[in-house]
Amino acid sequence: MPKTSHKILAVCLGNICRSPIAHGLIEHHALRLSLNVEVDSAGTIDHHSGNHPDPRSIALMNQNNIDISNQRSRIFCREDFKRFDLILAMDKQNLLDLYSLARNEEEKKKVKLVLGDADVPDPYYGGNDGFENVFNLLDQSIPNWLELPETQH
């Protein structure tokens, strides 16, 4: 069995749309693959701290039999670099924001774009189609992060 990261953090801007979906999908796919993975999500801003995910995120995940209603938004903190093995940024701006918080190269190496070289578009100001697009992009990408050896991340 390939080695995998056992503590994964998903990060977007406000932690109410993209990263909660990623968080739920990581848990879902880890369970499907019988992996013991600690998962959390955070935002790079604290505007929504303490809030539930966006109702559209919750509804979409419920349609796919994944419950994220117990998640609460929180802001990324430097301690997250110590706590997590892998930090998945939803877009290049989140990646740059996380790099700016890193104290050294070891911490920076933990931060990756979830789609490799592309952004997960922020669906907040759009309709339900944007949330479905985010779900589909992340649903295709997340299993790769769980199944590949760490050295290939």
Question: Key features?
Answer:
153 residues, Rossmann fold
Instruction: Estimate the strand proportion.
Output: 5-15%
Number of domains: 1
Number of helices: 6
* Mean pLDDT metric: 92
Widest sheet: strand ordering? 2-1-3-4
User: C-alpha Rg, in Å?
Assistant: 14 Å
Task: Explain briefly what this protein structure is.
The chain has helices spanning 18-32, 55-63, 79-83, 92-101, 105-109, 128-147, and strands at 7-12, 38-43, 86-89, 111-113. The protein is α/β, with parallel strands linked by helices and 153 residues long. A four-stranded parallel β-sheet has the order 2-1-3-4, sandwiched between helices.
Describe the model.
This protein has 153 residues and is α/β, with parallel strands linked by helices. The protein has a single domain, classed as Response regulator (Rossmann fold, 3-Layer(aba) Sandwich). 42% of the residues lie in helices and 12% in strands. The chain has a four-stranded parallel beta sheet with strand order 2-1-3-4, sandwiched between helices. Helix 1 (18-32) packs across helix 6 and helix 2 (55-63) crosses helix 6. The radius of gyration is 14 Å and the shape is globular. The model is unreliable at 149-153 (pLDDT under 50).
